[in-house]
Prior knowledge:
The protein is α/β, with parallel strands linked by helices. It has one domain (2-41, 91-199): Ribosomal protein L4/L1 (Ribosomal Protein L4, Chain: A, 3-Layer(aba) Sandwich). 33% of the residues lie in helices and 13% in strands. It is elongated and about 95 Å long. It starts with a strand and ends with a helix.
Amino acid sequence: MKLKMVNGASELQVSEAAFGRDFNESLVHQVITAYRAAGRSGTKAQKSRAEVSGGGKKPWSQKGTGQARAGSNRSPIWVGGGRTFAAKPRSFEQKVNRKMYRGALRSMLSQLARTERLVVTDALALEAPKTKLLAGQLKAWSLASVLIVVEATDEKLFLAARNLPHVEIIEASALNPLSLVSHDKVLMTVGAVKMLEERLQ
C-alpha cells in the first residue's frame, strides 16, 4: 500500500494491516456514536412531585366548591408542580472495546487512503507562528478543510492553525474517529504515519 506525498512525486510505502482494510460502515457508525455519547455530560435534572417544595395540605374540600377535585398544589398539572417522569442524571456511555475501536480507525484510514483523501508530507515546519504562512502552504496543496496529524505538538504550527476555521491539529496518539470524519482531507507527517502503523498493527 502506498500513500500520496503532497510535497513531491514520491509515494510512501505503508502497512496493508493499517491502511489496506475493507470499509466496515456499521462498525464505524457504532464507534462514532459511542464516542459522541461518551462526551455527553448527562447532568440534566428535574424535580418530581415528591421533591418540589410545598404541598401537604389539600387545597380545598373534595366536594361542594364547584371546582375540580385536587389533592395537592404540587401536582404536575399545577403551575409550580413537580414534573411527570422527571429527568435524572445518567450516563450515556456505550461499551466499545479496544479491538472495535482500533478496527474502526483502520477502516476509516483505509477508506481515506483508497479515496485519495489521505496525504502525507515529510514535515510541516513553519519559520514563525503565522496563520498566513500555514494558510498559504495549505492553499498550495489544495487543502481547505483538513485534519493535520503530527507525531508531536509543534507550538508554532498550533498557533498558526488555531485561527483557521476548517483546520485542526492533532497528535497521532490522540487521533479519534470523530476528528477523521469532521474534515474533507487528512494530512499526516511521515512520523505520524509510522506511529499509527505501530499502534494499529
